[in-house]
Write a structure and sequence with these properties.
Elements: H1 2-11, E1 24-32, E2 35-37, E3 40-42, E4 45-54, E5 57-61, E6 65-70, E7 75-80, E8 85-90, H2 95-98, H3 104-109, E9 113-125, E10 128-138, E11 143-151, H4 158-168, H5 176-182, E12 188-198, E13 201-214, E14 229-230, H6 235-240
Parallel strand pairs: 8-14
Antiparallel strand pairs: 1-4, 1-13, 2-3, 4-5, 5-6, 6-7, 7-8, 9-10, 10-11, 11-12, 12-13
Length: 241
């Protein structure tokens, strides 16, 4: 559903960095409390999220789905592990061309006003010395306040990652301005706590990085899995998953 997809965007690896000599593998745990909105109940959800960042390419897996950004070929792959299928879109993605006419008003309602505020507060998160950033995100339908703990990682290229991060979130309504503001974050978010409010319902979320490794990705990481079937992209079907 749309709420879950929006949260997935927020739980993406928020880096203002890009690539080093080897690929970067980031593994984290995410949690979302259960909630009920308009008669629809979403149970509590815990996921392991694995992200690989390479030169001009990125892969993010969230268990039942994954996304691949290939700046080298200007392609975006949206993968559904449940039915072993994938979609291919050209970059840059024009979301307005993919959304049905009856859903166009939703795009305006989902435009986010985002503010990222750095602080001088620091703490130790696992093996990382982290700095606190606060983020406020609001739209006509949704608001969220987050506290993020960020560590700097040597050898990263902020411009390279930010370019891929824009493409990674290009299918999420209203995220264009949010991505630009998030580029102010100077490093990797290793811990985050958030509270989302939608239609009067508050939902707590959290994430914590388990590991960061500088290693080469296995062959085929940045390609659709072998044996998966290509299907036409359907925006409504994606929002309902």
């Amino acid at each position: 559903m749309l709420v879950r997809k929006t949260l997935a965007v927020l739980f993406v690896v928020l880096l203002s960095a890009g690539l080093a000599v080897a690929d970067i593998k980031v593994v984290k745990q995410t949690h979302q409390d259960g909630f009920t909105i308009m008669g629809q109940t979403q149970p509590p959800e815990d996921r392991e999220q694995t992200t690989w960042i390479g030169k001009d390419m990125m892969y993010m897996d969230q268990g039942d789905s994954a996304t691949i950004v290939r700046v080298d070929t200007m392609k975006l792959y949206v993968i559904n592990h449940t039915d072993q299928s994938y979609h291919v879109l050209d970059l840059p993605v024009d979301l307005s061309a993919l959304v049905p006419p009856e859903m166009q008003p939703m795009l305006a309602m989902m435009q986010f006003d985002v503010t990222v505020t750095p602080t001088e507060e620091h703490k130790q998160v696992g093996e990382w010395n982290a700095r606190r950033y606060d983020m406020a995100m609001t739209s006509q339908m949704f608001s969220m306040n987050s506290t993020m703990w960020v560590t700097k990682v040597a050898g990263y290229d902020p411009q390279a990652f930010n370019s891929m991060y824009v493409h990674l979130n290009s299918l999420q309504p209203g995220m264009a301005d949010a991505v630009k503001e998030m580029s102010k974050i100077e490093g990797l978010v290793v811990e985050q706590q958030g509270a989302m409010t939608m239609m009067g319902t508050e939902v707590a979320t959290s994430e914590k990085t388990i590991s960061i490794d500088n290693i080469d990705a296995p062959a085929g990481t940045y390609d659709p899995p072998a044996g998966y079937t290509e299907k036409p992209f359907d925006f409504m079907e994606r929002m309902q998953r």
